[in-house]
Amino acid sequence: MPAMPNLDRLLAGMRVRGLDGVVATGALNVFYLSGFNAIAHKSDEPRPYAVMLSRHAPEHPILVVADYYLATFLAQPTWIADIRPFRAVMMPLDLPPKRTDIERFIPASGAGVPWLDDARRHYGFDMGAVLRAALADVGLARGRVAFDDLALGMRLGLARIEPVDGYDALMYARAVKTAAELRLLERATRLNQAAIERTIAAWQRGMTWRELSHTYTRAAVELGGFVRDPGGMVWGHPRGGDAAIVLQSSLEDGVIEPGAHVMFDCHGTLDLYCWDGGKTWAAGGAPEGAGKRNADATARAAEALLEAMRPGIRVSALQARAREAYRKAGVADADAAVIFFHGLGLSHMDLEQATADGKPNSDWTLEAGMVVPLHLLVPGAERERYWLEEVAVVTPEGGRPLFSWGLGPIAAG
After folding, report:
1. What are the CA-CA distances from residue 113 to residues 85, 103, 109, 279 (Å)?
2. pTM (whole model) above 0.70
3. Which stretch of DSSP H or E encloses residue 136?
4. CB under 8 Å to 230, separation ≥6 — which residues?
5. Which of 22, 116, 119, 367 is least buried, going by the fewest C-beta atoms within 10 A?
6. Is the pLDDT of residue 109 over 60?
7. CA atoms of 321 and 206, how far apart (whole Å)
8. pLDDT above 60 for 172
9. Phi–psi pair at 233, nearest 5 degrees
10. Could you give the CA distance from residue 273 to residue 130 in angstroms, rounded to a whole number?
11. Domains in the chain, ordered, with CATH?
């Protein structure tokens, strides 16, 4: 996991937005800021943790956690030294709270650990009280504070604090990856490629779409990854001459006929960092006819994009570059090609929705260190459609691909 976030970029983003501090309670933001990955918690449950950081005292962040999570940090260290527990749902309501309640959650291995001794001293009986005290201790008793859950900022009732939405400030920091994050994304991409290759190797005549999807999920999990229910394969595959662009519902169960173009766009996570992408496989063989022409044209478009994916270029310019490459390659209707981009990291976005001046960030600019999947789709019938999604790191020399298998179709296997 990352040792610490892109702190300089986070502080710069806070400064340009006029923020004195940030408070993060979203699971991915908490992980990003602290390295804490909580077990047994779902995203729509009340959030039993928070990280706060002051722009004026960035060397003293504070992590607030439910008491039952305290021992986690003996096995899962964090760069944050000030960890403050609060009495949470496991403690009885029919008995009065006691300062010694925290001892139930500290194993023998915690004896003499300095940060645990400090945690004992800061133990509080409810999350709100611990949060308010922590904010004051880092100099955020007043000022403009960004919350990734703005409702929390309002519920705290902080009379001298102006709570504002913290989504974009945190996404601005997350958009450019640290060296540790790049290693995690490279590792996740290798897992995805291996899972796709295993899936293809397992194909046999008569296999259905549902069986193929299940085979991919099983391969990804066996390799150590996690796939979100209802599945890891994203594209739907209309049959015959239907050129509609659809996503899987996970209910499709028709037979994959030999020669049908299977568009692997696969999602999952490894150590919370996302993998994405894949490309096209002609079941049991290789693209032919119009399908091969679309494959060749897509490879040329991808080459043009990788060369152009340098700091300072905008997404609209990349789209125009790829569309022109399709035209030069002889694609009859280059305007019908689907060409799009997004960030990749802890999510499939990791981008501001609005810039510091409040403008929409739809036509965003690439920066060095971003990880950006490039998506190329030529719609068509089941033996003509062609898909390629490469994942690239933005560098001054162009996009550096994370897949190792090149830009052509997947070999038959």
Report:
1. 15, 13, 8, 50
2. yes
3. helix 127-137
4. 249, 250
5. 367
6. yes
7. 40
8. yes
9. -95, 120
10. 30
11. 7-175 (3.40.350.10), 179-401 (3.90.230.10)
